[in-house]
Write a structure and sequence with these properties.
Blueprint lengths: L3 H31 L31 E4 L3 E5 L3 E6 L3 E6 L8 E8 L6 H13 L7 H11 L1 E5 L2 E10 L2 E11 L3 E8 L8 H12 L2 E2 L2
Antiparallel strand pairs: 1-2, 2-10, 3-4, 4-5, 5-9, 6-7, 7-8, 8-9
Helix pairs in contact: 2-3
Length: about 220
């Protein structure tokens, strides 16, 4: 018969191994019931509050400008401007003395009884200049004006922009003409000294005209 004393240690080792394996399976089974594994791609994100955009300061350079209002139109102009003349035919605004920048702006209004188009009005301006016998440079200036005129659209303004000249020498653009059914509007920008119109004047011109509104 086998020696029972020799078998006892072997049986004990086998019994411990069986109990250990069984205990492991029982533990993992219980643990699987208590906890659920959440896949990363199905994890629930914590709730977030709606994002509210922070208002940005106004970038409108005309926001603090003054406003001129007439029965027919309105426009804004720089805060250092003063209305020097205002009538049914012309509005002239200029910078206030001892302030910068220097500039002048005007709107002239005339009747358009023949209901001419803007192009017809501008062609007449060129023709009248060309026929001026008192200025030797008039014909050359008229030809240059014809070559440099271009369509201009800015807000409610839809007209033609003309290049200004000083005795035949070209300056920057500083004049816009627009004809409506019954009126002819001419807009002009100047630097306040009678000299040529600079790029800054042109920028100011566009800003003013962007605020122009017909009220009837």
């Amino acid at each position: 018969m086998p020696n029972q004393k020799g078998l006892a240690p072997i049986l004990i080792v086998i019994l411990v191994a069986v109990l250990g394996i069984g205990g492991y399976f029982v533990y993992t089974s219980l643990r699987g019931g208590m906890y659920q594994t959440v896949r990363p791609d199905t994890a629930i994100s914590p709730s977030t509050s709606p994002t509210t955009a922070t208002p940005t300061p106004s970038s409108d350079p005309t926001a603090n400008w003054k406003t001129y209002q007439s029965a027919n139109f309105s426009f804004k102009y720089p805060s250092n401007g003063v209305v020097k003349n205002a009538s049914s035919t012309i509005v002239f605004v200029s910078y206030q003395e001892d302030t910068k920048p220097y500039w002048t702006f005007s709107v002239s209004t005339t009747d358009n009884p023949m209901h001419l188009s803007t192009k017809q009005i501008v062609d007449k301006i060129v023709s009248d200049l060309k026929s001026n016998q008192n200025a030797p440079w008039a014909k050359s200036q008229a030809d240059q004006m014809s070559d440099t005129m271009k369509a201009y659209t800015n807000g409610q303004i839809t007209g033609i922009k003309l290049q200004s000249f000083d005795e035949g020498y070209p300056q920057s653009f500083g004049r816009v003409v627009q004809a409506t059914e019954n009126k002819i509007y001419e807009f002009n920008i100047g630097d306040g000294s009678g000299g040529g119109v600079s790029d800054e004047d042109e920028k100011l011109f566009d800003q003013i005209l962007s605020t122009f509104k017909f009220t009837q």
